[in-house]
Amino acid sequence: MNKQIPAPLIAVSADALSNLETHASMDSLFMYSNAPGEPPEGSKSVKALEWLRRVNNQSNEPLDILGKLIENYMENPDYQSEYTEIMFQKVENKAYQYVQNIRKCLSRYGLEYHQGGLILDGASAPIKSLSTIIKNRDLPAINAEFDRALENLVRDPREAILAACNILEAVCKTFIEDAGLAMPAKKDLQGVWKVIKDELGFDIRQIQDEDLIRILSGLFSTVSGIGALRTHASAAHAEGRTRYNIKPRHARLAVHAAHTAAVFIIESWDEKKVNS
User: Fold this and answer.
1) Residues 141 and 16 in one domain
2) Does residue 122 belong to any structural domain of this protein?
3) What CATH number is attached to the domain comprising 205?
4) Using alpha carbons only, how large is the chain's radius of gyration in Å?
């Protein structure tokens, strides 16, 4: 999703960049971050503002670029203390204040910085790791459903639940096809889940750790629950006598749960390929 950088966040980020970088280091940093175009003319402040506005206008993922631009500021230990020592004297750390201004502005707009240069919507932060995992894989169906789930969390919770189920179905079907397994006659979530559960060895009877058994049992129940919720309450099925009052918090729970299950499946899949 193309979520733009809020104007006040552009302002505080440009302030930090223009005060903490030289012209040369700023040019290098923007280019490293895949910012579009050549360096704008003007002072460091003008350059930073103009380039960040261009990122908003021309980039598909403006927040990804901003995350790379501020990564060093947000993670460098030297920038995390209010005071520093110079010639054995305790002095105010100006870089610290720039970092705090960025953090406050991110929070004001419901955004969070995560290690590795990721800026995420606070409500969608856990989900984004799935996007990162599938970004470099040929999984267009999963990418599409992932975007649909996030876009509809508030606007259309039932559609988000449908997308959450479709994410899991797409992951399972892709694994079945890539592994050369027989596709089940019933290709819904329950059908494809049974095939991959058997193939990936998701058998809790083979696990000795009782705590891990509880966690995995809960995960497997979650998969079944998402499929059932989709059947009974999503936009894919007509209303019966009972109307499910699906709210954004329910949709968010389903999408986050689908994310957790999908990541577990993909990581188990990768481990199986390494060990085979």
Assistant:
1) no
2) no
3) 1.20.120.330
4) 23
6: phi > 0 → left, psi -120 to 50 → alpha, else beta; which? beta
Q: How many domains does the chain have?
A: 2
Range of the domain at 161: 127-275
- Residue linked to tokens 């058994």: 213
Phi-psi label, residue 87: left if phi above 0, alpha if psi -120 to 50, beta otherwise = left
**List of residues 6+ apart from 192 with CB closer than 8 A:** 169, 172, 173, 176, 183, 184
DSSP at 213: H
Place of tokens 């895949």: 34
Pair (132, 231) in one structural domain:
yes
State whether residue 76 is helix, strand or coil: coil
Global confidence as pTM: 0.52
Residues 165 and 232 in one domain: yes
* Digit-coded pLDDT (tens) for 110-149: 888 877 788 877 655 555 566 666 665 666 677 778 778 8
Tokens of 45: 């402040």
Q: Tokens for 207, please give them.
A: 């696990």
